[in-house]
Amino acid sequence: MNVGHAPDVQRPSAAPSSDGSAGPFTGTGQLFRLAARRDRVRLPVWLIGLTAVIGASTNALVGFYDTPVKQAGYAATVENSAVSRLMGGTPYDVDTFGGILAYEITAVAGVTVALMVIFLVTRHIRGEEESGNAELVRSAVTGRHAALAATLALASVASGLAGLLVAGVLALSGVAVGPSLLFGAGLAAIGLAFTAVAAVAAQVASTARTALGGAILVMLALFIVRGIGAVEDNWLTWLAPFGWQDEIRPFGERAQGWPLLVSIGFAAVVLALAAWLAARRDFGAGLLQARAGRPTAAGWLRTPMALAFRMQRGLLLAWGVGLVVLAAVFGAVGREVRTMIDSNPEVGQVILGQIDDVVLGYLSFVTHFMGVTVATYAVVSALRLRREEESGRADAVLAGGVSRTRWALSGIVVTAGCSALMAVAVGLGVGLTHGLVSDDMARVGPLLGAALGTLPAVWTLAAVAFALHGWVPRWTALVWLPTAWAFIQAYLGDLLDFPDGISGLSPFWHLPKVPAESFEPVAFVVLTGLALALTALGVAGLRRRDLA
Amino acid sequence: MAAIELRDVVKTFGAVRALDGFDLEVEAGEVHGFLGPNGSGKSTAIRLLLGLLRPDSGGATLLGGDPWRDAPTLHRRLAYVPGEVNLWPNLTGGEVIDLLGRLRGGLDQRRRADLVERFGLDPTRRCGTYSKGNRQKVALVAALASDVELYLLDEPTSGLDPLMEAEFQTWVRESRPEGSTVLLSSHILAEVEALCDRVSIIRAGRRVQSGTLADLRHHTRTTVVADTSADDETTAAALRGLAGIHHLSLERGRLVMEVESHDLAGVLRHLADLGVTSLQAHPPTLEELFLHEYGEVPT
């Protein structure tokens, strides 16, 4: 598409000015089509993936809650479940079929849509500026706000489509069309809100990576705030877009559309801020300016391993903070599990004498879930090796008297070591906060052990990345498939009840649910061995092939 | 002893034959120009010498070793500047220079400081904020500050301004370590002409010429411009039928032609008889040589 073709851009679709001269939005239509074309694979993958996961979940639920008795049972369960509240928010109308379906999928759908637009917006605004593509576009007849407007339009379209698709899935599952659409609209509104958040992040940060990380951090913080609000049943839910969606309550008699306006209003205000910032910063710069660095390297920066570690310092810090906060929240909520059971005599009677089991079950879920999250870090870290090769930076190291094995091992050791460090942080985070709120430090040790017990599965996923990198470098990113699967299995596995052969594709499935179940040395050793074998395989492949 | 020797090397990427029976010899101690248009296989040949690529067939020797098998040991004796310089965006230029030098076993701090000064590089900035030219400077300083036997330079001055290019040339001529070898890939002909003892020309993965500039020129034509006192018809008649003259043009006593080098003596004898009042002859520039090798006629 020819963005520089003046006669075309002189009649922009977004903001035609009366005299035909260029305004701040000139060229938006052209840029929108360019952006849509560049994302013609990526965006459908997000949308189809979302629809597939949501479709599978609702499909599994349909038979479970077809009678009022079963629905009431569900309501009783989740209304008293801290985990449900933390992840799914305040349960409204969960004694209706639509309410149940929506409550089960809301966390996955909301976070996925938010991530989709955050990736999209930061990539198109900040990433384009970094690669220099945007400079060509800016030099053509395009207005100051055209690139931003085009990106936001694309993100809005994507959010709208996501909402429609999810509404369609609900409707096909047998939920009434009106409420389904209202739920979908709520989802689209989440997309809109985070489009605005990402737009601001893209103006404030001076690199695409910082913008992406910042926006995701804000998203996770808002998700946790909403979750805590729902657990404590207080006003905190009103601070986050996820909470505004809950307040629509599409499936009961108190359905209301006006919380949508809160999201839209929030998006409008935040977008105005983004536009104001955009107009005030230099091209390529951010509000946070890069500082001058050291003119010479520190004494320890002299080996490939030191370099690999130095390159991951930021990654390690960001993930470390994020994981510890998440672990602390999970740990602290552990107390609520007990409180809720104590305060509800009926539930208490059903599981009398098993309160400890419920708490243990909760902590096992947390350990498993956090393990998969640590694995995500490990995969990101493992993929750094491929990035080094692809960018040509590996050439510089390998031309400096470093063997391929040594180069590969530097990345592998840093990934393995740092993910172990993360597991320690997670285990201590959950254990200490849980110990503090429940006045019982006896669980710190076992929880730390449980977190370390997930490491073989973490390493196995990272090793898949190393093996792919060694033999089929172009397809290294496929490691995200088993990683995404591990997440789905961890979060929805009990619900979807897959055959063992399919669940077993997640390495985490093979590990016992510690601390509810006891540690199994065989699984630990076998998975660690598998990780080592895959890694060795990857190094062997790397030693014999051409480098990119 | 040859510092670099490639014999009948073939390297394919899928259907593309990037190197197609390629030969290259670089003697120890010489500055060897490696010329060819974009996509002719220069970078492939250099990356092969670095052991980053493995040849499909043919023999390769680098500093007496096997570039694939002995890569790490050989690399301690060489320095490399890639054609496209990508650096770690969150390290500063200074950090990268030190790191790359230390990987090779340390670099000369005095030379490092001198080169940073000469190239006008700000070593405190992060590589992510450098322009292409500045990234090039970082790679150059890192390579040139190390005391090694062989410098593999893949278009080292692309992206540098003329002043910096001159600094680079000064280094090659005056400051490089005694006895060191330089393989200088380039498509900037003037640079090669100014620096190189010998030149190899690569085209579509094959070597089409190799030798000293004098050798190469011997095979080609000299441009001769002369003013004569004779009228144009006489001149034309005198030169007609002489061997080795091409592209003759005549206008009001001014004569421009190209003469094959080995016929130059005979042509000049005839010119003398025509009463030459002024004469310029210049040997073919590398540019003309280059075009000659690609089958196009210099204008």
Brief account:
By secondary structure, chain A is mainly alpha-helical. Chain A is 73% helix and 0% strand.
Shape of chain A: globular
Distance between the termini of chain A: 29 Å
Summarize the biggest pleated sheet of chain A.
Answer: none
Please tally the helical runs of chain B, counting DSSP H or I stretches of 4 or more residues.
11
CA-based shape of chain B: elongated
> What Rg of chain A is obtained from the alpha carbons, in whole angstroms?
25 Å
Q: Number of helical runs of chain A?
A: 22
Q: From the 3D coordinates, which CATH architecture of the largest domain in chain B would you assign?
A: 3-Layer(aba) Sandwich
Work out the oligomeric state of the chains in this entry.
Answer: heterodimer
Strand content of chain B: 25-35%
Low-pLDDT parts of chain B are: none
Helix/strand order of chain B, N-terminal first: EEEHEHEHHHEHEHEEHEHEEHEH
Give the SSE string of chain A: HHHHHHHHHHHHHHHHHHHHHH
**Structural class of the secondary structure composition of chain A?**
mainly alpha
Q: In CATH terms, what is the fold-level topology of the largest domain in chain B?
A: Rossmann fold
